Amino acid sequence: MAIPGLGFACRPHVPLRIPLFPCVSKAIPSVNVSIYVYICIIYIYIYIYICLFVSMHSWTREWTSSMIYFAGDGKVPEWKKLNSKELGISTSKITRPTRKVLNVLRQKGYQVYLVGGCVRDLVLNRTPKDFDIITSAELKEVRRSFSWCEIVGKRFPICHVHIDDAIVEVSSFSTSAGNFKRDLSSSEYGKPIDCEEKDYVRWRNCLQRDFTINGWTLRPLLMFDPYERIVYDYLGGMEDIKRAKVKTVIPPSTSFQEDCGKFYTCSCTNDGHFLAFSKLRYPSLFDEARILRAIRIAARLGFRISRETARFVKNLSGSVSGLDRGRLLMEMNYMLAYGSAEASLRLLWKFGLLEILLPIQAAYLVQNGFRRRDKRSNMLLSLFSNMDKLLAPDRPCHSSLWVGILAFHKALCDQPRDPMVVATFSLTVHNGGDISEAVNIARRITKPHDTSFYELLECRNLDSCALTNEVMDLAASVKRALCKMTNEQAVSLAMAEYPKAPYSDLVFIPLELYLRVGRIFECVKEDTGKKSVSKQGSKIDYESLALGTLPEVRYIFARIVFDTVFPLNLDHDHA
């Protein structure tokens, strides 16, 4: 290729090593020095641009290849079609609204599958929290098939089908394919050459869900045809279930974070200690919420997080503070409101996330000498353990319940109380504010309290008047504790005594939730003759509990507190 005006020609291929410039100057001695310098600068810019282009191309190929090849062991996962009966899957666990949506779409000639966590839960013989459906029908066709159906989402639209007061999420293969721009024709993606078209569509969707929509989605990702009774496993998910491990599809060593359009990479030592974040020019598909999702899945299933993924979660724990406050509340509610709160709190503490998300509760654990891998319990964990006994993935509570428990425990930490005061307080909350009745019932309690909790004092045999005053004072303390939990300055001071702890003034409890929690305890007040409506009977109305109906939430709160202070299985040493 000739360069006009310079009197010499060069090959189109530009070497990745800059030639010696004196040689060039000898070849063109007549060129003005300033022009020569200008040409050299242009040459350097061209060279840098080509180097970056080649490096980026090489990095992209290596990165995208690792996304498929590295299933934790460096191998392409084997495609598997498994008989659901042999896996012990019971279709009776599929809810009626989900069945109706599946039947309607199948009768119209479309392919329908259950995907994601619900399939995993069915394999584990657990009741899924919800069911997600994917179909070969276009979203517009899905919407026309049901009387009440809406398409939500702009970037990754799905259908919300309303059936019997329930919402069933339906996505489409065509929408997934439209949002997935990567060329999958290459064999480097692990696609068999002679695969059937339906297999290809299902496999493509698995990859799209893993690496485009969900970012670094945690395995397993399974697809279940309830009519053919076949479970499709394209990414090695069943092997993870057998090993009871939670791990990422992409190698955790490729640790990138995306925060509001700014891209970072994590620098860490060989032993996994976090050093710093640095800006990275290459985009990342990582979502900070995946860290919390790893905790949630491990806690809910009782799985362990693989060593590589655990290091990744710990090193990037600080990145969760960049999440939207509403998203943080949603993720925390998923962890604490569905029957795995105690396990979630233990894992949050183990991986250094609790001091960022709940610094007040983290300070409590530090003050009590609670180690990261501690197997012991305390009053905070016992409260949530007793709450877990009443909840399940398909029987959650409203977020106001667990926030109320956190505030109640904080009040007891600030000022320990007589067990009779705690019992009377919980009974007053339950009956809607009748302190006199609560005092009379509390005085008849003969069960021993758990003396292992420093939040509980020795019984002092208070008279009715003193007991009433103490209950009122405890109610005021709970309200003050709730205010601290929603005050950035108070939250930031929680871990101030521990200089090695990360700074956090994170408050994700919105005003509406704060007011709702306050209403749980507002019935504990001076006897004015006006009482709130209390729950009748002892059977839990889980629909009301999920909606946050006050009588139901108050009843469950009182039951949790009472079972914690006066446990049925209390051994003689504690008594």
Automatic annotation (TrEMBL):
Name of protein: Uncharacterized protein
Gene Ontology molecular-function annotations: nucleotide binding; nucleotidyltransferase activity; RNA binding
PANTHER family with a match to the protein in the record: POLYNUCLEOTIDE ADENYLYLTRANSFERASE FAMILY PROTEIN, POLYNUCLEOTIDE ADENYLYLTRANSFERASE FAMILY PROTEIN-RELATED
InterPro entries in alphabetical order: NT_sf, PolA_pol_head_dom, PolyA_RNA-bd, tRNA_ntf/polyA_polymerase_I
Residue ranges of every copy of the Poly A polymerase head domain listed in the record: 112-246
Keyword Manganese: no
Family per similarity comment: Belongs to the tRNA nucleotidyltransferase/poly(A) polymerase family.
Transmembrane annotation, as ranges: 35-59
One Pfam family, short name: PolyA_pol_RNAbd
tRNA nucleotidyltransferase/poly(A) polymerase RNA and SrmB- binding domain: residues covered: 302-364
UniProt keyword Transport present: no
Organism: Ziziphus jujuba var. spinosa
Keywords attached to this entry: Membrane, Nucleotide-binding, RNA-binding, Transferase, Transmembrane, Transmembrane helix
Gene Ontology biological-process entries: tRNA 3'-terminal CCA addition
